[in-house]
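Cytochrome (Ubi)quinol oxidase subunit III
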Amino acid sequence: MSAHHEVGGALPPHAETATLEGKNKVMGFWLFLGGECVLFGTLFATFIALRNQVPDGPTGQEIFQLGTVALSTFILLTSSLTSVFGTMALHRGKLNQLLMWMTITILLGLAFLGLEIYEFKEYVHEGHVFSKSAFATSFYTLVGFHGAHVAFGVLWIALLIISSFKKGLTVVTAPKFYVAGLYWHFIDVVWVFIFTVVYLLGKVGP
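Structure:
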């Protein structure tokens, strides 16, 4: 049977690691996420050190809109759930279900990015621009860097969906969807820390 056809139950259990190539992709991606953790850890440490450095600009207490941020958080966490459903469909060898859940994940990711852009525009209107203070610079660097990761994840999953129409769901393509799901969970977890450290603590104040 050709490896390039999706047949319910035809894929081996845990198709994403059924081959040596698949195992290497997953292992390599875990190493990549380790490096990403170090990078985000550095950005978090920088933000925490500079969060009170606001000589003449607005503070987090003054500008943060927790309602908007809470909605963004809900959307992104929901997208993590839909990507879980996608992974479950992957394990069952159901390409159509996988594509449906990953498409919903993309749409939720786009909604999150739209809210973040709206949020940033509101902050700029309040005078909270990148160069206003050390707090502003560290804030936009951390939150913007995360937003760039979300945008990359949206593009990555979209390209996988497009390529799947030609290649189907196989032991070659399954690891690609699997690691994309891991990546999406990672950026969701990072956002939980951003929501807590940046927004909630920022709203409470020093």
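The chain has six helices and no strands.
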